[in-house]
Design goal:
Mean pLDDT: 93
CATH topology of the largest domain: Aminopeptidase
Structural class: alpha+beta
Strand order of the largest sheet: 1-2-3-4-5-12-6-11-10-9-8-7
Radius of gyration: 20 Å
Largest sheet: 12 strands, mixed
CATH architecture of the largest domain: 3-Layer(aba) Sandwich
Distance between the termini: 33 Å
Number of helices: 8
Number of strands: 12
Number of domains: 2
Shape: globular
Strand content: 25-35%
Helix content: 25-40%
């Protein structure tokens, strides 16, 4: 590890540093390791969100510390999402940058995520975040058997006629996943707009029974280079325990791997044992703790 001083300033990621930071993220800030299937670097899936942002030219949304030889990075999304990666020793310096810019959601690897939250909570007047442990679950090329298994019954892309059911699912998920209080009717129009956007992008999939959607999942990332990420998984209470989640996620995993993506990931609450079991049946493995914080 590079010797650093806590007084060294956090710096914006310069265009000339991008290639070096990409290598650091692909290694997960560790020494070079054996590649995954298809020659993919071992940190590609763990840091897929950050790598995809750099692939899209969003280097100006990153800060690094220290500036001359980074041991950690911090990404600020346009909607207030904060994503750290790297050595927890950078947490104090990065926390100061985070507080200057402001954030709404933090998600990232547990060691640096918890360290960043601890450093952020030192100020007397700072608003403390509601944080919890997640599990980071992954399916990689070569690790999932039978990629050409038939689709589960009722699996399909979401359609316009699903909008109201999916809005209801999203509002229920918000409460059941402890994201906050129930969404007011006056705020449902924003949820409806987001649902319609993901349907238009062909990023929402459902399982239906009797012509009605009983489970859904969204793709929050689909990159041939960095992999896919699944989010917003929800199964109607009346359909739980029937293999809907395992079938839905299993088919999404197989679909994305068949398309050549290096891997697929998702985050799930660490205390949601039924969901974790369903994702294991879908071919995913637990790669360790992450943290999700809201404020």
């Amino acid at each position: 590890m590079t010797a650093t001083s806590p007084r060294e300033a956090v710096q914006r990621l310069g265009r000339e540093q991008v290639a070096h930071v990409v290598v650091l993220l692909e290694r997960d800030f560790g020494p070079p390791g054996p590649p995954l299937a298809g020659g993919v670097a071992p940190g590609t899936i763990a840091n897929q969100y950050l790598l995809d942002a750099l692939d899209r030219g969003e280097h100006d949304r990153f800060v690094v510390w220290p500036g001359h030889d980074p041991i950690a990075v911090l990404y600020f999304g346009a909607t207030g999402t904060l994503v750290p990666a790297g050595d927890p020793a950078a947490a104090h310096a990065l926390a100061e940058a985070a507080e200057r810019i402001g954030w709404r959601v933090l998600v990232g690897d547990a060691p640096i995520g918890w360290a960043l939250l601890a450093a952020s909570n030192r100020g007397v007047f700072r608003r403390r975040a509601n944080a919890r442990e997640q599990r980071f679950m992954v399916a990689e090329q070569g690790a999932v058997a039978d990629l050409h298994r038939p689709e589960p019954e009722g699996f399909r892309l979401a359609r316009e006629e699903d909008v109201e059911v999916l809005v209801d699912f999203a509002c229920r998920l918000h409460v059941e996943d402890r994201m906050g209080p129930p969404i007011a009717r006056s705020a449902r129009s924003a949820v409806r707009a987001r649902v319609r956007e993901t349907i238009a992008r062909r990023d929402t999939f459902v399982v239906e029974r009797g012509g009605v959607a009983v489970g859904k999942a969204d793709l929050s990332l689909r990159s041939r280079r960095r992999g896919g990420q699944i989010a917003g998984v929800y199964v109607d209470a009346a359909a739980r325990g029937q293999g809907v989640a395992a079938g839905l996620i299993g088919e999404l995993v197989r679909m994305l791997l068949r398309d050549g993506l290096p891997g697929v990931s998702l985050h799930v609450r660490s205390d949601n044992a039924p969901a974790i079991a369903a994702y294991r049946r879908a071919g995913m493995s637990d790669r360790g703790p992450w943290v999700l914080a809201l404020r």
